[in-house]
Amino acid sequence: MTRSCSALGCTARDNGRSRERGISFHQFPVDAAQRREWIRAVNRVDPQSRQAWRPGPGAILCSRHFAEADFERYGLRRKLRRGAVMVSLMSVSKQHPHTATVFTQNCGMTLDRKKCVGVLASTTW
Question: Residues in domain THAP-type (predicted)?
Fold first, then answer.
């Protein structure tokens, strides 16, 4: 089964094509404090329960949501630095309610809002 990036509106899939384009994928940290930071940064709400979204055991984020400085290089491979937190933010436009825009230095894209999974959280935890 191909996994998808957990960032709201991101369409990156953990497959060969993404990796050929230099996109890497990173599992949510095991450390509880670091995991909470990632969940806070993802800023999603479970649409059924309206509670804070909880990542499953296979949940991942793609490298497009982190700053380049958050990575260490090891030859052709790169590793996410300990303590790195997602930097991209998602905004749903009130003027254009059917689009969602991802703001980040690495991936600025506009997506059809219907493709977005989940709901943007309006609160912080």
Answer: 1-89
**Cα pseudo-dihedral 25, 28, 34, 36, rounded to 10:** 130
In terms of DSSP bridges, do strands 60-62 and 25-27 run parallel, antiparallel, or are they unpaired?
antiparallel
- Name which of 74, 69, 103, 99 is nearest 85 in CA terms: 69
Beta carbons of 63 and 99 less than 8 angstroms apart: no
**What is the distance between the alpha carbons of residues 112 and 116, in angstroms, rounded to a whole number?**
7
CA distance linking residue 61 with residue 55, whole number of Å: 11
Helix, strand, coil % in the chain, rounded to nearest 5: 20, 30, 50
